[in-house]
TrEMBL record:
Classification lineage: Bacteria, Pseudomonadati, Balneolota, Balneolia, Balneolales
Biological role stated in the UniProt entry: May be involved in the biogenesis of curli organelles.
Keywords carried by this UniProt record: Signal
Biased composition (Polar residues): 137-155
CDD domains, alphabetized: LysM
Protein name: Curli production assembly/transport component CsgE
Superkingdom to which the source organism belongs: Bacteria
Length: 256
């Protein structure tokens, strides 16, 4: 009698545990239905779930309901992938503790937070000015060496650089593709190519390229890798031709 009772208790425990695990697994694989509110777009919906860079996954899960312009409407039902919901739920406590530690370690006022963007732009300007000073110093050093050395000419060539200021996945893909195909024209030096972007979740992301202070390329990317690669190749051609034109103009001026 005691043995039979023990077996019954064990079977009941196994069944209860299995039911709990099944319910938990089912919960983790069921997507969440979100109703669009006034002022919503894909990016701030993704931010509400703690993953601002996951707005593309939300778009992919609702591609049959959202067109390529990422336009959504009030009252529209959107499917939030289960992975995003699960990651949000599992990270709530961790993020809360991390924020507490960060506030203790780096207390910031609202004024400091609002000035971070300006500080970043100031650092970038300082970096560019420092780069130009290095170029000028190297050129001056080369001139001094020509004056004091033998008749054999000695020149110093400083290569240009490509600066990445992208943030989103599409922007980073564009930069990587551009850099993969980029090869400066022979004789081009002392130039700085800056690739920046302005993400607009409801309309893609705007890529802009400057050579020194001249804007030479601007295009709104689409969430298609093939299109991103096409635009990167086009940007490479435009930058290459621009540097050729600048070199030609410089040579013409030096001839006078």
């Amino acid at each position: 009698m005691g043995l039979r009772y023990s077996i019954i208790i064990s079977l009941s425990s196994i069944i209860t545990c299995s039911s709990t695990l099944y319910a938990q697994n089912k919960k983790d694989t069921v997507p969440y239905q979100y109703t669009v509110k006034a002022g919503d777009n894909l990016k701030n919906i993704a931010e509400a779930f703690g993953h601002p860079n996951s707005w593309e996954k939300i778009y992919e899960a609702n591609a049959d309901r959202v067109d390529t312009s990422y336009t959504i409407y009030i009252g529209q039902k959107l499917t939030i992938p289960a992975l995003i919901v699960t990651r949000r739920d599992s990270s709530l406590v961790e993020n809360r503790n991390r924020l507490k530690k960060r506030k203790k370690r780096e207390p910031q006022s609202p004024a400091e937070n609002s000035s971070q963007g300006k500080a970043g732009n100031k650092k970038l300007s300082e970096f560019r000015e420092a780069f130009k000073k290095v170029v000028a110093q190297e050129q001056q050093t080369g001139t001094d060496q020509e004056k004091t050395s033998s008749p054999q000419r000695s020149t110093i060539s400083i290569n240009g650089m490509v600066l990445d200021e992208t943030r989103s996945k599409m922007g980073i893909d564009f930069y990587n593709l551009f850099y993969r195909h980029w090869e400066p024209p022979s004789g081009a030096s002392n130039f700085m190519i800056t690739i920046s972007e302005q993400p607009t979740p409801s309309r893609g992301t705007m890529i802009t390229i400057h050579i020194d202070n001249e804007k030479v390329f601007q295009n709104r990317l689409q969430p298609k890798y093939a299109y991103t690669e096409k635009m990167a190749r086009q940007a490479v051609v435009i930058c290459y031709r621009t540097l050729l034109r600048q070199r030609s103009s410089s040579n013409s001026l030096s001839g006078y």
